[in-house]
Write a structure and sequence with these properties.
The protein is of the alpha+beta class. 24% of the residues lie in helices and 28% in strands.
Length: 361
């Protein structure tokens, strides 16, 4: 089983790779290289999903474990000669946290070059000096956003180039970890740990079982990656590992009890608006709870309005699904925060659940 230091090492490798929604190739390439020594087969499908199979291709019982590889960010809209670039947001970027944030502009348009690639161009999101503050400055809109870069590098930036937050990593303690894009590089790190365990455990599986580890694309904008991957695999069940909300800061405490370090979250319900909702499969979620209770794995529970996940497409396909949520503070801001112990416990829960999937409801 992986320990906290190994998870830190994986996150340190994953976070600098960019991976704006629709431009996940660098993340996919890294994860493919890490999973290939352990899996029976690893491939990238036509829209960029990473799929690793552990077990026989003709297995009658298939289960998929998925985490999205993409992140929120921006794309370049216009570039001026003085180095001021207008941008358009991609995904649900946390607007109030943006002014003054450091970013990276990628020189290659689709991040298709596997690392090492051309170094990104540094930039800073503009913010009015406090000494020039005006009424309404706190009501910033996306139309106000611009990124300042070195004017000498303007010719190296293409319109629609991806822009991501600069990969600053801050270790507040052995377990409290702050960085951009922990949603969902934390889930990707858990998948890599799971792949290593599956490589060792798959010989114990019955001949009719297979586990598919999937890194999906475009969760932050369309969920099309998960839809396409699940159609190919057609698993009996799907488990999604994704960032979720915590309520352990002064302004969020009245909204729920989930906290960093309390264990992974077994989510029951997600809802945004209209018909955009998701329910956990009751039997699968109950089975996860039973595993956690039996083995003394700490876990938390939640039902959330204002959050969505790739899991919604499993419902459209008639695939029972559950979410193992990783509690996070400051989601979609330039610096998110996790407790690495929650990732360790999520990994423990997954290995228990997959050890005998024939017992799943």
């Amino acid at each position: 089983m992986w320990d906290v230091s190994q998870l830190r090492d994986r996150l340190a490798a994953l976070i600098p790779l960019g991976g704006l929604a629709g431009h996940e190739s660098a993340v996919m390439g890294y994860m493919a290289g890490e999973l290939r020594p352990h899996a029976d087969l690893v491939w990238c499908d036509d829209i960029g999903n990473l799929i690793a199979r552990f077990g026989p291709a003709d297995a009658a019982h298939k289960i998929a474990v998925l985490a999205h590889m993409d992140t929120v960010g921006f794309m370049i809209k216009t570039v001026r000669d003085d180095g001021i670039c207008r941008v358009v947001p991609v995904g649900g970027v946390n607007l109030k946290a943006l002014p003054g944030a450091a970013v990276t502009i990628w020189r290659y348009h689709d991040q298709s070059a596997a690392p090492p690639a051309l170094p990104g161009i540094p930039g800073v999101i503009g913010v009015r000096a406090q000494h020039l503050a005006q009424a309404g400055d706190l009501a910033t809109t996306f139309d106000d956003l611009y990124v300042q870069i070195d004017p000498a590098l303007c010719d190296e930036i293409a319109v629609t180039a991806p822009v991501t937050f600069a990969p600053q990593i801050t270790l507040l303690s052995d377990h409290l970890y702050s960085a951009p894009y922990l949603d969902n590089r934390a889930g990707c790190a858990v998948l890599l740990a799971l792949g290593e365990w599956l490589g060792q455990a798959k010989t114990q599986f019955a001949a009719n079982r297979a586990v598919y580890v999937v890194g999906t694309v475009q969760e932050e904008t369309t969920c099309a990656g998960a839809l396409h991957a699940l159609r190919q695999i057609a698993p009996r069940h799907a488990i999604f590992v994704d960032g979720t909300l915590s309520y352990d800061t002064p302004e969020t405490a009245p909204r729920g009890s989930v906290r960093l370090g309390g264990g992974p979250v077994l989510t029951s319900f997600l809802y945004v608006s209209g018909l955009n909702g998701w329910h956990a499969a009751p039997g699968l979620r109950s089975h996860l709870k039973d595993q956690a209770l039996t083995q003394n794995i700490p876990f938390q529970e939640d039902a959330i309005r204002g959050l969505m996940s790739d899991a919604r497409v499993a419902m459209w396909l008639g695939i029972p699904s559950a979410i193992i949520g990783l509690p996070m503070r400051s989601k979609h801001a330039p610096q998110e925060m996790i407790h690495l112990g929650d990732l360790v416990h999520a990994m423990r829960l997954l290995t228990l659940e997959l050890s005998d999937p024939c017992n799943l409801p």
